[in-house]
Amino acid sequence: MATFGNLSDRLAETFKNLRTKGKLSPADVDGTVREIRRALLDADVALEVVKEFTGKVRERALGDEVNRALNPAQQVVQIVNEELVAILGGQQRRLEFAKKPPTVIMLAGLQGAGKTTLAGKLAKWLAKENHTPLLVAADLQRPNAVNQLQVVGGQAGVAVYAPEPGNGVGNPVKVAKDSLKFAVDKQYDTVVIDTAGRLGVDAEMMKQAADIRKATNPDEVLFVIDAMIGQDAVATARAFQEGVDFTGVVLTKLDGDARGGAALSVASVTGRPIIFASTGETLDDFEPFHPDRMASRILDLGDILSLIEQA
Amino acid sequence: MADRTPWSLSGALRGMFAKRTIDDDTWDDLESALIRADFGPTVTEEVVDDLRAKVARYSTTDPRDLQRMLREVMEERLAKYDPTLKLTERPAVVLVVGVNGVGKTTTIGKFARFLKTFDRTVVVGAADTFRAAAVEQLATWADRAGVDIVRPQHEGQDPASVAFQTIEQAKARGTEIVIIDTAGRLQTKGGLMDELGKIRRVIEKQAPVAEVLLVLDATTGQNGLAQADAFIQHAGVTGLVITKLDGSAKAGFVLAVQEKTGIPIKLIGQGEGINDLTGFTPHVFAQNLVG
Ligand SMILES: Nc1nc2c(ncn2[C@@H]2O[C@H](COP(=O)(O)OP(=O)(O)OP(=O)(O)O)[C@@H](O)[C@H]2O)c(=O)[nH]1
Ligand SMILES: Nc1nc2c(ncn2[C@@H]2O[C@H](COP(=O)(O)OP(=O)(O)OP(=O)(O)O)[C@@H](O)[C@H]2O)c(=O)[nH]1
Ligand SMILES: [Mg+2]
Ligand SMILES: [Mg+2]
């Protein structure tokens, strides 16, 4: 928050003292780690992840690992950045395709996270990559979710399998299952299944998602999560991991100014890679996830990294 | 409503409150629990310091006293604002705004139904002309609530003109309450935020705006404060609605939002059903939080 200045400013202040000293003392490190902790919490990184992270940074900063080319302040920044990128997955991971088509991609997540929009984005991108995607309307609960997917499918110029009207009518597990046969018959090579939003605490809806998964045996189950989410990211990610399990994560609404601490929380708690970033409401606002960019975003590291050069 | 596992600070603090005496761990536990409930580092620090001072002043060592004080502090801080909806104008125009996917359209459906049960006549205006099937979604809710709807006359119609036509119809028919749905927009999008100001100005040519409700999603973290700031600036928010409180998120950030902006929480959404909406009662909110 503005009242405390951004992390860069605060760390710059802490680093002023560090720069003149030769080696880091525990007190120096503690002061710096406190600032980082606060910044991570302001960025909505989950508390347990913050604790683990700051513990690691502290340990490394006090360890023997000394880079002679860097002064102490630069060393801390470098350690912080490396640890962040490591949790976020280091390298990009690409979507897995089935050896024998169709490839099945199931989407799951909380209400309003951006699943249906993502379905359209994925379909459009897949079509551009010379795939023949089929969108499947398996959210039969949210009012007019089926219409929404049809509109989005139209915008993407892809086919939509929507045998049921929705709004409480139809069985989503059956629709998902039948869509595979439909895809094989009509030779669609990728199937993207949109599902209803559900809460982590909703056991019945979680079971439905698990049933859809069982019935379709997806190559990828993507957990779609809003970058604005707070501390609940951990409970929710765990609930979806236990309830449905997922193979990858998509972070949405990154076009806003949320720091996106959820990225760190989810990646750290579930060990699943973040594959895509969703960055807007139109179907082209979508890109592969870049762990290094996310690291600087969460901790405001863009500015801090430049301190390395100045220092 | 969801089959829920209730989460409360007291749940998280069970170990702490079950202890015989207050010790250093107690304060760490309290701090952790407040952070996990999304109060944010600043409010958390304030609350912990405040309670530390109180515990010292009353020289108590009983964790149950601390629990009671925590509940009181929360309730007191939450209750500083007046949560009553001001719907006395005729027509009373309510504009509903917020970022994408927080629950605006759903809240309008529930709210329309709520007003209907008090025999108010209601019309909703589908001024989200952008999002795929947003008009149909609102129409489904209007139908469920048994209220009228004004739709755009052609695709991509200017949202302000849909709002204008809705109020025009309400005045012609003597409808008492008008609720306008708007497209979700992130607070960082200047052009879309300006559009809200325009919608408001166009409405005001016809009738004063009775309430501008900003919908905030309980799962949101500290970004909720930035959302509130921007929407207040561009749309003149008069009340907050907190949705999705049926999940495991506690929405602690709303305390800071209320205090920083002085704008009261007025409605609470707790589910996807048409009846899952209530007024805001600080006592109940604090009780749910602290146990
Ligand atoms: N700004 C922005 N808005 C997005 C993004 N992704 C989705 N949205 C918007 O978020 C809102 C919800 O998106 P949906 O795709 O309907 O979300 P959902 O997860 O399918 O929602 P439910 O089906 O209700 O659970 C819509 O207004 C979308 O336009 C994004 O990356 N950026
Ligand atoms: N569990 C739960 N879900 C809710 C609640 N309120 C809304 N939802 C769900 O959240 C999702 C988004 O709701 P909408 O009403 O479409 O949200 P919106 O703000 O109008 O979204 P946009 O118009 O796309 O910005 C839907 O799946 C709703 O059913 C609530 O209180 N609890
Ligand atoms: Mg959807
Ligand atoms: Mg809406």
From TrEMBL, chain B:
<dbReference type="InterPro" id="IPR004390">
    <property type="entry name" value="SR_rcpt_FtsY"/>
</dbReference>
<dbReference type="InterPro" id="IPR000897">
    <property type="entry name" value="SRP54_GTPase_dom"/>
</dbReference>
<keyword id="KW-0963">Cytoplasm</keyword>
<dbReference type="Pfam" id="PF00448">
    <property type="entry name" value="SRP54"/>
</dbReference>
<keyword id="KW-0675">Receptor</keyword>
<keyword id="KW-0378">Hydrolase</keyword>
<dbReference type="InterPro" id="IPR036225">
    <property type="entry name" value="SRP/SRP_N"/>
</dbReference>
<protein>
    <recommendedName>
        <fullName>Signal recognition particle receptor FtsY</fullName>
        <ecNumber>3.6.5.4</ecNumber>
    </recommendedName>
</protein>
<keyword id="KW-0342">GTP-binding</keyword>
<comment type="similarity">
    <text>Belongs to the GTP-binding SRP family. FtsY subfamily.</text>
</comment>
<keyword id="KW-0472">Membrane</keyword>
<comment type="subunit">
    <text>Part of the signal recognition particle protein translocation system, which is composed of SRP and FtsY.</text>
</comment>
<feature type="domain" description="AAA+ ATPase">
    <location>
        <begin position="90"/>
        <end position="247"/>
    </location>
</feature>
<dbReference type="InterPro" id="IPR027417">
    <property type="entry name" value="P-loop_NTPase"/>
</dbReference>
<comment type="function">
    <text>Involved in targeting and insertion of nascent membrane proteins into the cytoplasmic membrane. Acts as a receptor for the complex formed by the signal recognition particle (SRP) and the ribosome-nascent chain (RNC).</text>
</comment>
<keyword id="KW-0547">Nucleotide-binding</keyword>
<keyword id="KW-1003">Cell membrane</keyword>
<feature type="binding site">
    <location>
        <begin position="243"/>
        <end position="246"/>
    </location>
    <ligand>
        <name>GTP</name>
    </ligand>
</feature>
<dbReference type="InterPro" id="IPR013822">
    <property type="entry name" value="Signal_recog_particl_SRP54_hlx"/>
</dbReference>
<dbReference type="Pfam" id="PF02881">
    <property type="entry name" value="SRP54_N"/>
</dbReference>
<dbReference type="InterPro" id="IPR042101">
    <property type="entry name" value="SRP54_N_sf"/>
</dbReference>
<feature type="domain" description="SRP54-type proteins GTP-binding">
    <location>
        <begin position="91"/>
        <end position="291"/>
    </location>
</feature>
<feature type="binding site">
    <location>
        <begin position="181"/>
        <end position="185"/>
    </location>
    <ligand>
        <name>GTP</name>
    </ligand>
</feature>
<feature type="binding site">
    <location>
        <begin position="98"/>
        <end position="105"/>
    </location>
    <ligand>
        <name>GTP</name>
    </ligand>
</feature>
<dbReference type="InterPro" id="IPR003593">
    <property type="entry name" value="AAA+_ATPase"/>
</dbReference>
<feature type="domain" description="Signal recognition particle SRP54 helical bundle">
    <location>
        <begin position="1"/>
        <end position="78"/>
    </location>
</feature>
